[in-house]
Structures are given as C-alpha cells and as structure tokens.
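Q: Joint fold for the lines below.
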Amino acid sequence: MSAATRLTGALATLAALPARVVEPLMHGLQKLLGIKRMPWVFLIPNLTAVLLFSLLPVFINIFYSVTGSDRLFPLDRPYVGAANYETLLDCRDYLDPSTCSRDLFWRALGNTLLFVPVQVAAMIGIALLTAICLNRDIRGRGFFRGIFFFPVMLSPVVVALTWQWILQRNGALNGLLTAIGLEPINWLVLPDAAFFWSVFVTVWAHMGFFTIILLAGLQSIPRDVYEAAKMDAASPWRVFTRITLPMLKPTLLVVFILCVIRSVQTFDELYVLTGGGPGSATILIVQFIYETGFAIQPRNFGLAAAASLLLGMVLLIFTLVQLRVARGRSYG
Amino acid sequence: MAELAARGGHGSVLRFLTRRRGRIRADWSDWATYIYLFLGVAIMFAPVLWVALSSFKTPANLAEFPPTFLPYATETVTVEGYDEPLPLFEVRTEDGGTRLLAQVRRVGLRAQMIDPADPEAGRIVVQVADAEPVRRVLFTFGNYARLLSTSGSELWLFVYNSLFITVAATIITLIMNSMAAFALSKYRFRGNTVALVAILMTLMIPPTVVLVPTYLIVAQFGLVGNLWGVILPTVATPTGVFLLRQYMLTIPDELIEAARMDHASEWRIYWRVVLPLSAPALAVVAIFSILSRWNDFLLPLVVLNRREVYTLQLALASFQDENQIHYDQLLAMTTLTALPLAFAFIFLQRYIASGIASTGIK
Amino acid sequence: MADLVLEKLRKSFGAVEVIPSLDLQIEDGEFVVFVGPSGCGKSTLLRLIAGLEEATSGDIRIAGQSVVSVPAADRGVAMVFQSYALYPHMTVRENLSFGLENIRMSREEIARRVEAAAKMLQIEELLERRPKQLSGGQRQRVAIGRAITRDPKIFLFDEPLSNLDAELRVLMRVEITNLHERLGNTMIYVTHDQIEAMTMADKIVVLRKGVIEQVGAPLELYNRPCNMFVAGFIGSPRMNFVSGAIAEATEAGITFQAPHLPPLGVPAMAGKVRAGEQVTLGIRPEHFVLSNDGNGWPLQITIAEQHGANSYLHCTTPGGAPILIHEAGQSRIGRGDVLFAQPRMDQLHLFDAEGRRIELGESEADGRLGAGLP
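A: Joint structure:
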C-alpha cells in the first residue's frame, strides 16, 4: 500500500510541474530567443536523450571494438586495432563453423541467416492472411482483432514461459499427442524441433502487431476502387493481385523493414525459452553479443562491440537497399 | 475450441455467422474466413488460458501426465481426532461394492484408512491398488499463497518497481516525444531534416547492440541498481516521435496560426492546442510505451543488479535460475504478471487498434 | 486611424517570386477585397499583412506605424481563416476567450466581450458547444466572433465563404457587409469569387501573379477595366473578346474590322488609335442589341440556355469565334438559328495588342456609362 501512496505522490509532483515551472520558463526562453529558435528548445530534451543514449553509445561501441581487455571505462582499454574483427572472422573453412576461432559466432550467424528469412516470411504471410480475413465484412471483427493482438501485449518472458510450460516433456502438447495415440516428443531437446518452435513462438507473439498495421493499410484502400473492380467483373484473385497488393505496397514495405529489423534482434523470448540450446541450435547473433559481453567471464566488451557493429552495418545496408529498391520501383 | 464454439448452440451460432452486413448470403469464402479465424483464436488464446488454468492446480495435479484440462484436487475430509484434513479415497471392497474412506497414512503398498462417517470403528488396512482418490474440479489458490508467503512483501516491491518505471518513463516519453514531434511538424527551420533523421536513425540501432556502452553511460551517472537507470535510456523513442509527428502533420497549420494571432506563446500553442488535439496519437504512444516498459527485460537485467530493484519480469525470470524450476509458483507469477495487461487490454483494445490505424504508418 | 499602407512589398519563397513589388494604400474603415484567380498571391498578401509570412523586403504600415517586424499577435489585426481554424477541443466560449486569456485580460472583461460578440452574431445559445456540433454557417460566425472579441484595428478574411453552400454564402455575404457597417473597422477580404468582390467591396484590388492589375470601386472596374485581364475577370458571364484590326481612324470615328465579320463603325474620338493597329474589341454579353433586319453581326446559335428570367445565347461568328449574348426574359431563339446582333456603341471596350485599355471618346463616354447599367 505504501507503494501506491509513493506512486501517487510522485505523480502529483509531476503533474504540477508544467504549470508552475515549465510555462514561465518557456515564456522566458521565447522572449530571450525569439520564436525562430523555439523549435530547438522543444527538440533539445529529446535530442539530448537521443545523443546520450543512442548515438554516443554507437561511437563508444566503435571505440570498444578496437580496444581490448575487460575494463569497462573506454580510456582504460588498450588499443588493439582490428584484432577483435580478425578474431571474429578468423576461419579456416567458412562452411564449417567448428574450424573458426569463434565458432559460436559463426553458428549464431548461420542460425540468424536461417531464422530471419523463415520467420519474416511466416510472419508477413500469416499477418497478411489474418488482416485480409479481418478486413472482410464479418461479425465480431473487434473480438477477433483483439484476440490476435493479445500476445503482443505479453512480455517476452511470459511468452517464453507459457510456451515452455506447453512444450515441456510433460506438457500439454505431449498430452494431446498421447491422447491421439502418438509418442510424446521432447520438443525443446531436439535441435530441429527447437528451431521450429523458436520461429513459431516468435511469430505467435508478434504477428498481431503487423496484422494491425496491415489491416490499417487495407482499410485505407478506398472502397469505391473495389466497387469499380466489381463492376469490371474482376475475379477475387485478380482483385487481390491487381488492386489490393499494389495499393498495399507502401504499408507492406514498412512492415517488411520493421519485421526484418525486429527479427534480427530477437533475443528475450529465445533466451528464456531455449537459452540458445539445445547445444547452439537456436542461438542468434544478439544472444552471442549478450553472452560475450555480459554472461561469460571474462567479459569481452571488445568482441561484443565488434559483433554488434557488424550486425548494425548489415541492418543499415539492408534498409537502404530496400528503400532504394522500393523508390526505384515506384518511379518506374 | 473452434469445434466447441461451432457445436455449442448449433442453430443460433449458425444464424449468427451467416447473417451478414451488406450482402444477402454467405459463400464459401466466408466459411473459410470463419474457420481460419476460429482456428487462430484457438492458437492465440489457448496457451494463455492453459497457463492461467494451470496456475490453479495443486503441485500434485501439475506433475501428472497426461495433464488434466481443468485443475483437479483430491477431496479431503476432517475427521475427529486428526488435526489435518485427510484425503478421501474410493475403496473397492471384497464384496465388489465401494465405500468412501479417509487415508491416515500410507506404508508401502498398504494404506491405513478410517471411515469418516464412523471414526470410532478404528483404522482399516487397505491395498493401495484398490483405492482411487476422490477428485473434483477445484481451483486452488495454493500456488498464489505459497508465492506470497515465500516472496511476500518482496512481491509488492517488484510491482512498485515495475509500476514506477512504467509510469515515469511513459510520462517523460510522452512529453519529450511530443515536444520534439511538435518542433519537427509545425516549424520550418534550418536543420529540421537533420534532427528528424538523427532521431529516426536510432530506429536502426538495436538496443542490444549498444547494450555495453549504454551500461557504461548509466554507470557513469551512478545509476546502476537505480530505477532511473532503466528509465532514462528508454525515453527518447524514435517511433514515438515519428508517430506523433505524422499525426501532428494532420493538424491544420491554420490552427497554429490562429493561436499565434491569439497571442498564445509557443509553449501555450503546444500545451493547450497541439497536445490536446494529438490525444489519439498520444494514447497509442502511451500504450506502446507502457507495454515495452512493463515488459522490458534485457536492460533491467543488466542495470538492476540488486533484488530490491528487480522488476516483475526479472523476478519472474529468476524463478528459472535455480536448477529446478518451481512450476507451481512460476505459473502463479506468470499469471499475475500478465494480469494487469489483460485488464489494460480489455479497456484499451479498441483504442490501440483504431489508434494505430488512424495514426497511420503511411 | 487604422489605415494600411503597403510599400514596395516583396515576397519570394526561395527562387519563386510570389509578389514582385507591391504598393497599396487602404483607408481607415474601408472594405477592401483582394480578388484574382488561384495562385495570384492574394492569400500570401493577406498573410503578409497578418504577419504569418515574413516579407522579403518592403514595408507594411498600420495606422502610420511600421509593423513589418512585429509578430502577428501584436499587429492589432484579426484573421478569419478559410477553414475557420476553430480549436476543435474547446467550446465556443473557450474558443472566443482563448486569445484574451493569453494576454491576461481580467475574467469580467473577457466574459463581457464574449457575450457582446455572441450577441452581435446571434450565437449566444451555442457558447457551450464544441465546433463539431455546429453547422458550417455557425462555425463561420464563431470564427468571426473570435476576431471580434479581440477588437482589432483591421479584420482579415481569407476566403471565409468558400466552404459554405451557395445559399448560405449569399446570406453570410450580407451579414459580413452588415457587420462592416456596424463595426466600421477596416476589413480586408480575400476571394477568388468576383461576385463576392462586386457585392461586398468598397474597393476591389485585382491581382494577377502578385501584381496589382487594377484598384477601384466595383462599378469602376466593371465599367472601365484597365486591361483585358480585369475586363475578363470582373463581370459574369465574362466579357466577349473579338480580335481584329482598326480599318479606318478619322475625326468622326473609327472602323473596327474583324475577320469574317462586317466592319463596325464606332462613333468615337480616335484618340491614340491609328489605322491598321491590331486591337481586341470587348463587349459584355448584356451589351448587344438584337435585330431581325440583318443589321449587325450574323451569329449562329449553338446553345440557348434558358434560365427563366434570363436567356444566355451561345453563338459563333462566321469565323468560328464564340460569342455569348444575354437576353432579358425568355428567348424564342433556338439552336441552329442565325441572329443579327449589334454591339451597343456606348458600351464598347477596346484593347490594344498588349491588352491595355484604349480610351474612347472621353467625357462623352463617361456620361453614358451610368446610363448603360442594367
């Protein structure tokens, strides 16, 4: 109960802030700087936070990636040049991770390269199908929409624990299997099954978000276009391929980019669900970064930073290429 | 579940489903749609329902395989002369009939039982194989009680920590993001594209990727093990700025000009005109902020290194830390953690969906 | 005194020059209408006066004081926006009082002014409603009311009637004119609708591409447009233009010759016109005399529009040029008929090759102008 009173106290202080302090302050600033400089006043809090907690870390990360040792403070760290990158990329046979000096990195990379396309394809396919179903003239649309969105609100930990409870040896899924006369399977111990469930659970957890965006995109297509197509006796399939898909393309592009960026960053659910296992079957690149930088002693910040910069670079190139391709197409 | 729903109240459901807006009758594609959607409902919702149901099971019931759908518990009975309630068994007698007996204790393959109707008659020795426990559907709160007794006051602390982080971060996020969005949507000034790009570029930076330097900066501010150490790095969300800016672009500039001619200062224009009009977009940003702060895992995992500052999510994950997983308490806690969201969801569901739609990623 | 002077006012957006250089004087209490086709810079000009756009160079003086570097709020002007720009989240009362609260006016004074404005505009019973719950006309009144409460020196209207339906527009036109009568403030009104300009203005300013084409009272512009642009823009339906040449110019008059048409003798002083010059003759549709005796131009009817009280005859000359003729009452002429029409000699407009007006028979013509009105 004391928690509640402390919280309301904090809230009351916050609520009184704008009228008493901020308004006179901002009026004074406007007098001092003039209207033309006011946008910067409005921008500065957000920009400061962005610089401090997003852009500055990128530069520190670059610094980390070319320095060694397990010291946290950058200036305490000796310069090692490209050694971290060399360690990561050092391999005798690039097709066989076990010949690499950091085989876990290559396994994580390989898993990610498989995980991302599969997951993105499944995610967008299912989300699009769901959005199309929800966009039809059906009863209880709000209810269905709510149900599909619900898992988005659950925390990754809850999602992972929920599915772990279902997939464990004595779980509900094996219960169902025995009920129809099949042998129970230890889902999270078999590498291929664990990988499948990794994809399944992450799609389950996030597809609602993309469904809502796609649904909004579908609903923004004017009705009379469909009515015109109906007058032109277009078949449902032609309506879908010649009207719906082209008009949905801008939304699809946004969804695709968001989906890939999120997919590459997958961590929480799998960290709790499989922990990257069995073995290294479901370890993805972000988990490699976390393990290298924080979990495994001694903490190797340099190697983690190098890996994360490589990841960031790939993401950046991917997005730019996507946007360029999309722009080129829409002009063409 | 789909079949259940379809079978229950055959006629009315059929009529409900085939009644359509606009067109006269349903065709096969409508049926396909409903089948898909009901299947979806089963897959999306059943796991959560299953966990919630499981959290009301006794540990013995949880350990059973195959699992029961509803929570079952062995019926107990209080017998005179015994302090604890005794479990009730249905025992086959030699003459082929059955009688209800309460088990006092079990030794090997035999059990000592007593007739609850006639305790005076003394103990009866029964073969375990002949005895079936009497069970009925029972939602026990034992898991929750155990959770509260072992974690107790700690649990309230986790709730407070999670709430404080969520509320404070969301309020700051809303104010800071909307201020930035206002500047980026309602002013033409040198460098506004640069500022917008700088903010949006951070979309490209996965939080995980900058985890180490973020930790360093938090450490430099002396905020490791402090709730503010989780709040501050998360407030400048690029998506929030972007969503709000897109929404504010739809507020007519004439309104701002009218306010300016009405002697409103820039802050007053922001606070009294633009902010109230952005309520739908603010709601969306607030919901996303609440969700991601409440559910945040990795940053708290790194920054909040003492149990006193744990969030619910950290506490939840820590149940797994030990070699053995305490499923009973874990399930109760999982349900508890998801509960506030379930409530929020009921109230905000429409707002979320229509909010995303109207704010529009165009 | 709240007169307004614009001096060498210039505005460009980057490389695009919207207003090259503009001089204008508006007297205290005048109702001035800026009119012109879309993109003529009339709204920009209004926004420059309001202080919503910054002038590239030049000066704006209100009541003798330069306001060119004064913020919009402090110029003593109030603006009624095209979209009304009512604050959707505030009630009508809050909308009216927001600006007054911002200058920390006392509550009693705010209440007094709001009541007075509401009474004047008959929106008293709407004060607690929100803009969404109002009709277009009511919103319009609230927008005007918001301007009134501020008690400005100059009212600015930016196409305020363009969002209303035709019937309401006529009604509001009268109301705004009445409001001007009652308040007596200087008002500047921007529109692309020349009927609004004609019916409301004390003074019309015709703009094209940021340049003032003509300034004057409505009938002055109607009767003596100084060029073809103004002649074509003011008056509805628009003036007919027939291009041709001066065949003969003597003391007695001039003879106008258009291809495929019989020559037209105009008994007017030749003035500056010389024989052989390329000119354009302008005749308003209502300034034709129809005849059955073969006098005048033979015109073939393509469409005869019957409006009931008026008829509009769309014709073509033998050369194929379109001519519109207005005939009072109902016409019996139908499609395909040929009629003979004689322009009224006292209502001719002559323009030179650059489109500038050529004055015909000075003092004499002036006397007749008034008589020629419908």
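Q: Anything notable?
A: The first strand of chain C starts at residue 4 and ends at 13. The two ends of chain C are 37 Å apart (CA to CA).
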